[in-house]
Amino acid sequence: MENNPVLRAEHLGIVFGGLKAVSDFDISIGENELVGLIGPNGAGKTTIFNLLTGVYQPTEGVIYLNGKSMAHKKPHQMVKEGIARTFQNIRLFKELTVLDNVKVAFNQGMKYSLLKAVFRTPSYWKEEAEIDRKARELLAVFKMEDMADSLAENLPYGQQRKLEIARALATNPKILLLDEPAAGMNPTETAELMETISTIRKNFNISILLIEHDMSLVMSICERIIVIDYGQIIAKGTPQQIAKNEKVIGAYLGA
User: Fold this and answer.
1) Is the CB of residue 94 less than 8 Å from the CB of residue 157?
2) Could you give phi then psi for residue 50, rounded to 5 degrees?
3) pLDDT by residue for the chain (255 residues), tens digit each?
4) DSSP alpha helices (H): ranges in the chain?
5) C-alpha–C-alpha distance, residues 44 and 201, integer Å
6) Sheet holding 7-16, edge to edge
7) Which domain holds residue 239?
């Protein structure tokens, strides 16, 4: 664990209608670290992602990104600070092309004014050309450059997942939160996803927090794993330690 983690949360919790959905959740993720967050259905994993990305405001606890408090930040502000995520259900702009899906994410860093956009000034075209170049370079990393002009809705499922991840990376995040990226994938697509995650770490040097039900994927790529049940941490450790943990086995088997 890093002395100066990229992402740190302390005593994080949230209450819905008197029910504690998440309680006393702590996490610390270092630079370029890949951490898994697992637990049975309904354990609170996606709720934690929603807390870490500003979708929900915590009832208690604090979140820090590179030592800076993220208190009261909204989702779009979290993105600007450097926290990007994907979702269980793919959320692409399916009527747009693959290229435009990525360019939309780059737009959050645009510097030209509305007036320059309306009148199509030289600085507008220069910046648009730069974004087009960056978007195509990003697609090339994922071996999707030949699909740039295809509509997102026409992509195979696995490629839609990759596009969603590429779009998240276009926001230039410090940490990427992947919410069940292998959901609905066949074994071949899952293997390609593992390769994609390896490519991300190699090319972008960012930290990753991963929610996933595919245990073979989690155990093979995560350096550390945090296990939650009923909104609370029940175990932390290496994949080898987690695989032998009796509390974890009991939570999954209903013991």
Assistant:
1) no
2) -65, -35
3) 445 899 999 999 999 999 999 999 999 999 999 999 999 999 999 999 999 999 999 999 999 999 999 999 999 999 999 999 999 888 999 999 999 999 999 876 556 555 555 556 777 657 878 899 999 999 999 999 999 999 999 999 999 999 999 999 999 999 999 999 998 889 999 998 998 998 898 889 899 999 998 888 999 999 999 999 999 999 999 999 999 999 999 988 765
4) 45-52, 75-81, 98-106, 114-119, 122-141, 157-169, 187-204, 215-221, 239-243, 246-253
5) 26
6) 19-29, 7-16, 60-65, 68-69
7) 7-93+168-253
Answer yes or no: pTM beyond 0.90: no
Tell me, rounded to whole angstroms, the distance of Cα 98 from its chain centroid. 19
Classify residue 160: in a domain, yes or no: no
Q: Is 113 within a domain? A: no
CB 212 within 8 A of CB 161: no
User: What phi and psi values does residue 213 have, to the nearest 5 degrees?
Assistant: -95, -15
